[in-house]
Amino acid sequence: MTLAHGRHTLAIPGPSIMPDRVLQAMHRAAPNIYTGELLDLADSLVPDLKEVARTKHDVAMYIGNGHAAWEASLVNVVAPGETVLVPATGNFSHGWAAMAERLGAEVQLIDFGKRAALDPARVAEALNADKARKIKAVLCVQTDTATSAKSDVAALRKAMDATGHPALLIVDCIACLGCDEMQMDAWGVDIVVAGCQKGLMTPPGMCFVYFNDKAAEVRKRMERVSSYWDWVPRADPEYFYQYWCGTAPTHHLYGLREALNMIVHEEGLEAVWARHATLARAVWAAFEAWSVEGPIELNIADRAVRSNAVTSVRIGAPTGTQLRDWLTEEAGVTLGIGLGMAEPNDPAWHGFFRVGHMGHLNSHMLMGTLGSIQAGLTALQIPHGAGALDAAAQVCAEG
Q1: Model-level pTM?
Q2: If you placed Cys at 57, which of 26, 200, 212, 385 could pair as Cys (CB 3.0 to 4.6 Å)?
Q3: What are the strands of the beta sheet with 310-314, ordered from one edge?
Q4: pLDDT digit string (tens) for 7-64?
């Protein structure tokens, strides 16, 4: 017998669980893409997208995933042969660096490993050493989806400013926009990249690049930017089709409109941040209790640099895969794989998993996932400490 029948829970770090309201908004006939409500709806997205990043500056919308947003951010401000500095905190920092290299940029990497956030002082050292001012931009991943490390963007900007270096600060918020706090303007971020499928609760397919006046000036000096990735017509379109350099992602727009209604106009962004912070603490409380005995260990030891969107866990091979498989087959819960923590052909790969706690999530849904994990630990006879669910419930009760 299996207890997996019923509504399946996707506890991975994106795509996140989609609200029924978002899915229902998308479940409609194709609209007119030349006149009518779709044009007004698209215009209405812009101020709310700016609100979730806390910016008064521009946003360009693209049909694509987070990797598309990476490329769009790079091609608008970094030319082949120019240098970018990448303080790497996990798999996605390295992926962004690799993309920059494929686009012809020179990459200077500072690797902080897989268990720590970046150190702004070391970034400042690298900028101070760049006497020729060759570094065009610093590429910072705010939350690395693989390691769950969260970097202090405001502290990084302060350290950069202290050097007097003109490099742009480009921040990847793909994993955490709408979950971890982002204050683009207040923190002095020049470019933010994000996607729709995590904290914004919309099926994968749209991504966003926000840019301020400093970044816009750099864009003006670029000799060439491809017509598709160019953010200028997308951010200030003369005609509707220019938002997407062609046909709009029609049904995604209806879904995103509903998601932004829920985030910005109903719950409120600060309340959304607070909810994610509380639910994250509940996850940490459970895993800290389990880790008292047995092999379970949170990948990021310091609570101050853990993301509110995702938690990466070490449990030892092959136990991680065994637990994930049991939860899918017996409890109807899917956890995230240990992405980038070991090579796929390395047996150590089976010793990691991730819990996504982002977007459309409440305490009832989270406690169900944590209870299922405890059932899996018990069924597989994996040693673990007691009191995890009580600890998580106490966090939820205190709010």
Answers
A1: 0.97
A2: 212
A3: 9-11, 333-337, 352-356, 310-314, 297-298
A4: 999 999 999 999 999 999 999 999 999 999 999 999 999 999 999 999 999 999 999 9
Q: Report residue 169: phi and psi, to 5°.
A: -105, 115
Three-state secondary-structure class, residue 88: strand
Alpha helices in the chain (DSSP H): 20-26, 37-53, 66-75, 91-102, 120-129, 153-163, 184-187, 213-220, 231-235, 250-260, 269-290, 319-326, 363-379, 388-398
d(CA 4, CA 272): 30
DSSP per-residue letters across 95-120? HHHHHHHHTT-EEEEEE--SS----H
Question: Tokens for 72?
Answer: 């769009």
CA distance 204 to 186: 29
Query: What torsion, rounded to 10 degrees, do the Cα atoms 200, 203, 207, 208 define?
Result: -30
Q: Hey, which residues does 9 pair with through a beta bridge?
A: 333
From the CB of residue 203, how many other CB atoms can be counted at a distance below 10 Å? Answer: 17
Mark residue 300 as left, alpha or beta (left: phi above 0; alpha: psi -120 to 50; beta: remaining): beta
- The answer to whether 235 and 215 are in contact (CB under 8 A) is no
Give 23-81 as a DSSP string.
Answer: HHHH-SPPPPSSSSHHHHHHHHHHHHHHHHHT-SSEEEEEES-HHHHHHHHHHTT--TT
Reported confidence tier of residue 1, pLDDT bands at 50, 70, 90: confident
Cα atoms in the 13 Å half-sphere on the side-chain side of 159: 18
- Give backbone dihedrals phi and psi of 76, rounded to 5 degrees, phi first: -80, -20
Q: Cα separation of 357 and 250, whole Å? A: 28
**For the chain, what's the residue count?**
399
Task: Round to whole Å and give the CA distance between 157 and 139.
Answer: 12
Coil/strand/helix, residue 356: strand
